[in-house]
Amino acid sequence: MIKKSIPQEILFYLAVVFISLVVLFPFLWMLSSSFKTQTDIIAWPPKLIFSPTLHNYEKVFGEQDFLKYFINSTVVGGLAVGLSLVLGLPAAYSISRFTQRKLALFILLARLMPGISFLMPWYIIFSRLGLMDTYVALVLSHMLIALPIVVWIMSSYFNSIPVELEESAMVDGATRQYAFWAIILPMSGPGIITSVTLSFIFSWNNFMFSQVLSMEKTRTLPIAVYNFVSYAEVDWGGVMAAAVAIMAPAILLTMIFQKFVVKGLTMGAVKG
Amino acid sequence: MASVDIVNVKKSFDRAEILRGISVRIQDGEFVVLVGPSGCGKSTLLRMIAGLETITSGEIRIGDQVVNELAPRDRDIAMVFQNYALYPHMTVAENMAFSLRLRGTSKAEIGQRVARAAEILGLTTLLDRRPRQLSGGQRQRVAMGRAIVRDPKVFLFDEPLSNLDAKLRVAMRSEIKDLHQRLKTTMIYVTHDQIEAMTMADRIVVMREGRVEQTGGPLELYDQPANLFVAGFIGSPAMNMLKGSVEIGRRTGFSADNGTFVPLPPSPALEGLAGRALVIGIRPEHLHIAGDDRDGFEVAVRIVEPTGSETQVTAIADGAEIIALFRERQTVHQGDTLRLVPMLYHLFDATSGERCATVTA
User: Fold this and answer.
1) Hey, is the C-beta of A165 within 8 angstroms of any chain B C-beta?
2) The domain at A59-266 falls in which architecture?
3) How far is CA B258 from the centre of its chain?
């Protein structure tokens, strides 16, 4: 790397700070608003100095059944991602090794189609089957989010694993299935972590499917935010506090696995 | 240990014909090298013996069992891949034990066999390392160790040395040969490097475009190449070749199309060939500088490359490049004119490429 002079260095960091501010502004706004009263939030000009209150968080964790939503989100996200791995890893392997490009495209199509176009048929099917407001309906719908992510990330990850590894295992006495299990999967850690992190976050943040398919029993976290919106008024403080509480696990997850996520996403881009 | 019979084997991918009917009989305990330029189908053939590619038609037998429909794991073969294909998440010992574990071998015996293989290959101190902590040569050895612990019927090698540097390649070459002499197991070895083939093989199968061009011992291929392709492929530097025809009468020799006339001593082999379109092939090491007793053909020296033990001279004869290799030291310089005589030459039919005669002059 070329060494920068000091003015260049200063300019560089100024740019970094400026861009970060632009990107982080909505988040910072949300964070600060979550500690403000309703009056402070809608005050004009915006109040930069205010006396912080935990009232909004008390509402989120007290009045709202936040813990229940949290468990629902975790169960739905966990099951959807888990089942997507069970189905998606072998699918991705077969797409990679038997070059099933059409199948891969078809799966991508499911991801590209607006989710709302699935909702009507789902609503009808699930209500006829009496599956409304059940984990089954939510997990199945969230698999539409998680499965394509798993298949796409993992098939390009498998592409980067030399095919000779399982050929060697097969000559050594393994079946293809065993070679996949004992040789390929243990090498796929970074890819699996990437696809799990991303698909879990997408499921975690999904609002639309939960809003339509769940009711009292299975509501997920994003609905908790929505609960602060009523016909009469929008409780901005509650919305902001709930949003912060929801984002925390996603941010935590990303920070922990960031290294893998970047590696997993760029896998196969460069032969190395 | 077993023989391998390849009977009229063909392979096509979609419409492309990769192998056009290959028949080779490999004896029990033989070291056979499949050699040819890239795309000749040698690796495909090896992979078909391993069971990693299906056989379009024909038959492959290992011992007296037809293996066409047998999965790789049921063929009792071991294979060393070009990129070694070591399992990165396993230690050296685990890599070597993998196949034994799959076969349900007892722990004690696995330990014993791994230790013995490690000793043969000098890997004893590296057993707990992982592949990424090893050098290229060590990885190569682990790949071989993984093959030999099994004591398989046949060893298959797919260009195992091409990822190593030149010095290591030479060392591993003799190591593999030594291993063959110790184990006496049938080995089939694929390479594009004719020197590897010449130095290691009991028998060489030269392939081109999905066909076998010639099968034979290394010296047989060198001394009596069946056709122009084998003649040009075996031997380094490659054989000099000139198109033309044999002249007998006022002067006897080979009159090349570029105008060069190579005087040749009269020989019964030349009669009957006069007038036919031929190619003369002269190995660089069979070209000597003409003395007073014999007439040679004139070349202009362009490059002189002395290596100490020999001198390679690249010269031009009427526009055609001629390479000569001298064992004795030569005091030739660029721009000099030399008169060369062939001590041994081959004549090939120009159309079919088949060899018609080999003559010691």
Assistant:
1) yes
2) Orthogonal Bundle (1.10)
3) 32
User: Which is nearest to B298 in space by CA: B258, B250, B337?
Assistant: B337
- Give the three-class secondary structure for B72: helix
Beta-strand relationship, B297-306 and B344-349 = unpaired
Mean pLDDT, contiguous 10-residue spans, chain B (361 residues) = 90 89 93 93 93 92 91 92 90 93 91 91 90 88 90 92 85 89 92 92 94 94 94 92 91 91 90 90 94 87 91 93 91 90 94 92 81
**A149 alpha-carbon distance from chain centroid:** 10
Nearest chain B CA: its distance from A161 CA (Å): 10
DSSP string, B153-173: SEEEEESTTTTS-HHHHHHHH
Scanning A74-113 for CB atoms below 8 A from B yields none
β-strand partners of B247: B253
Strand partners, B299: B338
- Quote the ipTM score: 0.84
Contact B36, B204 (CB under 8 A): no
The whole-model pTM stands at 0.82
CB-closest option in B51, B81, B103 to A168: B81
The answer to whether the CB atoms of B73 and A183 lie below 8 A apart is no
Distance from CA of A257 to the nearest CA of B (A): 20
* B73 to A170: CB separation less than 8 angstroms, yes or no: yes
CA distance B42 to B24: 12
Rounded to the nearest angstrom, the minimum Cα separation between B171 and chain A is: 24
Amino acid at site B110: I
CA distance to partner chain B, nearest, from residue A174 (Å)? 6
Contact B52 A170 (CB under 8 A): yes
Give the nearest partner residue to A171 out of B78, B82, B83, using CB atoms.
Answer: B78
Domain ranges of chain A: 59-266
Q: Cβ distance B230 to B213 under 8 Å?
A: yes
A60: amino acid identity, one letter: V
